[in-house]
Amino acid sequence: xxxxxxxxxxxxxxxxxxxxxxxxxxxxxxxxxxxxxxxxxxxxxxxxxxxxxxxxxxxxxxxxxxxxxxxxxxxxxxxxxxxxxxxxxxxxxxxxxxxxxxxxxxxxxxxxxxxxxxxxxxxxxxxxxxxxxxxxxxxxxxxxxxxxxxxxxxxxxxxxxxxxxxxxxxxxxxxxxxxxxxxxxxxxxxxxxxxxxxxxxxxxxxxxxxxxxxxxxxxxxxxxxxxxxxxxxxxxxxxxxxxxxxxxxxxxxxxxxxxxxxxxxxxxxxxxxxxxx
Amino acid sequence: xxxxxxxxxxxxxxxxxxxxxxxxxxxxxxxxxxxxxxxxxxxxxxxxxxxxxxxxxxxxxxxxxxxxxxxxxxxxxxxxxxxxxxxxxxxxxxxxxxxxxxxxxxxxxxxxxxxxxxxxxxxxxxxxxxxxxxxxxxxxxxxxxxxxxxxxxxxxxxxxxxxxxxxxxxxxxxxxxxxxxxxxxxxxxxxxxxxxxxxxxxxxxxxxxxxxxxxxxxxxxxxxxxxxxxxxxxxxxxxxxxxxxxxxxxxxxxxxxxxxxxxxxxxxxxxxxxxxxxx
Lengths: 277, 279
Known about the structure:
heterodimer; A: mainly beta; Lipoxygenase-1; 2 domains; 4-stranded antiparallel beta sheet; B: 279 residues; mainly beta; globular
């Protein structure tokens, strides 16, 4: 088990009218009757859009061994009702932060609940059940890419209209190649987050990626892009809610490099560091 | 353990400026990641023309919820299961909170038992993050046994709306156990309509429910002629002299009063009634 001292919240709103909300999102994590975390997130993203935030040090680090399915809840602090389709809570432990291990804690998918402080609109809060962190031997059938694009700096546009591509090699075998462009989300816009789930045509394990394989992120055009935060997870189910969410790539700080097919502007392709262990 | 098919929420608001709230109080009960109960409570009412719903500073609330969609097992609850929240930004300062459940008859007929409780709460609740937390946990308490040593008593009373059912007369709660009077306390404030009252009462000597059952009784009396018809009366025994109890023993539970009017005027009611002792 891990001692979590850095926490992240990611969600994808349902792509239906008014599912987005500017209400502050409240996340609580309870261990044996004590709230080890009570944190507000100013999500404010629209219908069908994604959110990713976190990374700051927790006041009270907690041990994942103390968590149960009743420990994690998410709610809203206003009456602009919110309807997420997918929510993921994950963290880091200080000891493992540098090595890039993200620890998934709780996840729900395919939700239809509306949350609001207005009783006529929905519950105030809802539970987020635990998911396992899996292992290097967990069979991965889908991949979740979470990415946040950096805010524009000095007038530069950090977002991109170019497509990007994720490739996963297990050993020498290409098990996933997915081009991401023109999804229902606002793709890769500056200061925005994206949640992309893609099927793995060939199920694989992290161990197979570690054994001579690789994970490669490419940009397919010359509209330069500057990611800020990027995580890749493997999901053990082909559809619906996963039982195990395997950390594949954890880049809470992307670094200084841009991406572009114009090599004068950035890297056309980056091999992402695969989570050890 | 018990199968719970009904949930009550009781609370006492801090007696401080602005501790009261007009917002609804949201109670959730979760078992293994599924909400088995989720409901909004008003907790406080007023007579027509005298204000809306909610709790004022220092005011107590006691309300029966709608039955859960399906009965749930109290043995499956954990300290992370029960949470109380507020549905708006009129911040509420709870002092004490108690969540009660009614066990189905196969456990004990009409048995009401304490599920979760917090006392002497510091925090405030509000949807406004500048004012307080959105929700708070309410930790489990054990229902105790007939042999749990009781060092304090909690009396919860609610009087509903009706013609002159309230009273300005004092009332008294007496508990005898093992042939001795263990508690003899007067309540000296008015018992108004649509009002709940929460009283921690000190005992003369510690006792057990078994002591009450074997050679004792619980009597609720009125000390004046202003007749009173209570709606709900709960009497619980707590295992601690102060602070949060670990065990809350049901001594008497009368969720729907059918014991008649109370008055020292015999033409209006009985001066004293023996409360049923919980099994």
